[in-house]
Amino acid sequence: MLQQQQSSNQVQETQSEQFGPISITKLEVNGITGADIKKLQEAGLHTIEAVAYVPKKLLLSIKGISEQKAEKILMEAYKLIPMGFTTASEFHLKRSEIIQLTSGSKELDKLLQGGIETGSITEMFGEFRTGKTQLCHQLAVTCQLPIDMGGGEGKALYIDTEGTFRPERLLAIAERYGLNGSDVLDNVAYARAYNSDHQTQLLLQASAMMTETRYALIIVDSATALYRTDYSGRGELSERQMHMAKFLRTLQRIADEV
Length: 258
What we know:
Layout (H helix, E strand, L loop, with lengths): L1 H17 L15 H9 L5 H6 L2 H5 L6 H14 L7 H9 L3 E2 L4 H6 L4 E2 L14 H11 L12 E6 L6 H10 L4 H6 L1 E5 L3 H14 L5 E7 L3 H6 L6 H21 L1
Parallel strand pairs: 3-4, 3-5
Antiparallel strand pairs: 1-2
Helix pairs in contact: 8-9, 11-13
């Protein structure tokens, strides 16, 4: 009986380890030093998936990471993260397990073929005062619902670039779903971004937080607002586009990790 209980606990631990992104600290078991892992974390790489997905030149740009070390780090990451071909059947099975978050509107969910898809980037755009921010607040609450109610059973990360976040909206939405308002607020990690560099830095912090607990959703409202003020004129157009592309690539990398 004791053996069965121990075996069951081991299975649960293994399943828990396999769920979600793998912490970069796991590389220490594979021969990567703690000092090098700390350097990777300081560069914004907090999961093994993040390391596996970046180009080698990014690792080489990190102070203290030589070409030999970069090759060793990538080799160990590739051992733990599938990076090759798979069958369409396996990919189809993986796609069927994707969680979709309800928007709170049956008609909108129908248009989205089930809701907001996790593991990907969803862009919302529209004219001023058409409800974009309200929908962001709605999703920050619905992502906390059980999966059978259209939720993701996780917390939300909210990066606010325009100062439009209002906790009282979350309380009203929580009441609609019969959720405890205090718990809902505690499950939303909020940060105000003040410039485009800060916005990117907050995203790197978010990727670190996602290795510690289950987050079902990252909201950036809005992703482009600060770029309109930080860069101006055609002379800075190329720099702006490169900075924005890097931000979006980081966002996509985080989505791929989970």
